[in-house]
Automatic annotation (TrEMBL):
It is a multi-pass membrane protein. It comes from Ceratopteris richardii (Triangle waterfern). One of its GO terms (cellular component) is membrane. It is found in: Membrane. Residues 294-319 are annotated as: Disordered. It comes from the Eukaryota. InterPro entries: Sugar_P_trans_dom, TPT_transporter. Keywords: Membrane, Transmembrane, Transmembrane helix. Residues 10-288 form the Sugar phosphate transporter domain. The chain crosses the membrane at residues 29-49, 61-78, 90-110, 117-136, 142-162, 174-195, 215-236, 243-264, 270-288. This is Sugar phosphate transporter domain-containing protein.
Length: 319
């Protein structure tokens, strides 16, 4: 339970911190690359010092893990682009709609039982709240909603496929963090070519529109990197113990704190009716109940970590 709460806290704050970082450092690709570097390098260094145990790097495992890293990279990239083009509320609403698609993908791809009627009802409440928000969004932007739809699709695939990887690849939690972030970092040069962010970075540097030595610029960037490492560890720990849909809904519920902070900190947030739709999304997450079947057995990890053997959340069969 403690790791689940830690994940909720990290995820809630990371959405706000990432928005803050993007406002001060408007290069979403470079920001995510820095997050990957800090996470991968941090795990490697701490492992070398004997402060944690992670699986050794292996070319065969890296190749097997590559599709998951690509899914993760695309989902994080679309996340950053969405925060660049839209407010935090829009991000939360589309994040709240992800469980509806993950539930379908989990049943079809992972061969898990279809959710119970109460589960579909709660997911329907989430979708209705998201629809209400979109209809009331006076700041509608085609660019923002294009990125929002891309984020919705990539996150849905990411949650289902990475759950499959966690169940089958046999890495411990820190090993998953290391492989995931290292391989995502190696994909960064491709993004520079495709999105043209490298040229934008050179242009902004020549114009000196950003003070690269400013504490106000690097503070949110540093915090986003630190929270990126935290959410990587707690996220993979949670994925081991609950279904893909359950993990997705957990990510929706934790956004209640994000909404509260957003309303008090930023000027760019939804109207009263839009906020009502937002709260409906979160309320639907609270109503969510996992299907009663027990998840498939996991492949034993190469390193047994005590924290991984603790139940994070009460499983349905234990109720």
């Amino acid at each position: 339970m403690g790791i689940a709460l830690a994940y909720c806290l990290a995820a809630s704050l990371l959405s706000i911190i990432n928005k803050w970082a993007i406002m001060k450092f408007p290069f979403p690709g470079l920001l995510t690359a820095l997050q990957y570097f800090v996470s991968a390098f941090g795990v490697y260094v701490l492992g070398s010092l004997g402060l944690l145990k992670h699986d050794k790097l292996d070319s065969k495992i890296m190749l097997k893990f590559l599709p998951a890293a690509v899914c993760f990279y695309i989902s994080i990239f679309t996340n950053s682009e969405l925060l660049l083009h839209a407010n935090v509320d829009t991000f939360i609403v589309f994040r709240s709609a992800v469980p509806l698609f993950v539930a379908f993908g989990e049943a079809v791809y992972l061969k898990q039982p279809w959710p119970a009627c109460k589960t579909w009802l709660s997911l329907g409440v989430i979708f209705t709240g998201a629809l209400l928000y979109v209809l009331m969004d006076q700041g509608f932007s085609l660019d923002a909603y294009t990125w929002a739809l891309a984020y919705l699709g990539s996150m849905s695939i990411d949650f289902v496929y990475i759950k499959h990887i966690v169940m089958t690849i046999g890495l411990n939690t820190w090993g998953l963090v290391l492989y995931n972030n290292l391989e995502a970092l190696l994909l960064f040069p491709l993004e520079l070519l495709v999105m043209g962010e490298g040229l934008q970075l050179l242009k902004e540097t020549s114009k000196q529109s950003i003070n690269w030595y400013s504490f106000n610029v690097w503070l949110p960037v540093a915090l986003s990197c630190a929270f990126g490492l935290a959410i990587s560890f707690f996220g993979f720990s949670c994925r081991r113990n609950i279904s893909a849909t359950g993990f997705t809904v957990l990510g929706v519920v934790n956004k209640l704190l994000t909404v509260a902070i957003n309303l008090f900190v930023w000027e760019h947030h939804a109207s009263l009716v839009g906020t009502l739709g937002l709260l409906m999304c979160i309320g639907g997450g609270v109503l969510y109940q996992q299907s009663s079947s027990k998840p498939k057995s996991l492949v034993p990890t190469s390193e047994d970590i005590d924290v991984e053997q603790q139940p994070l959340l009460q499983k349905p069969n234990d109720a």
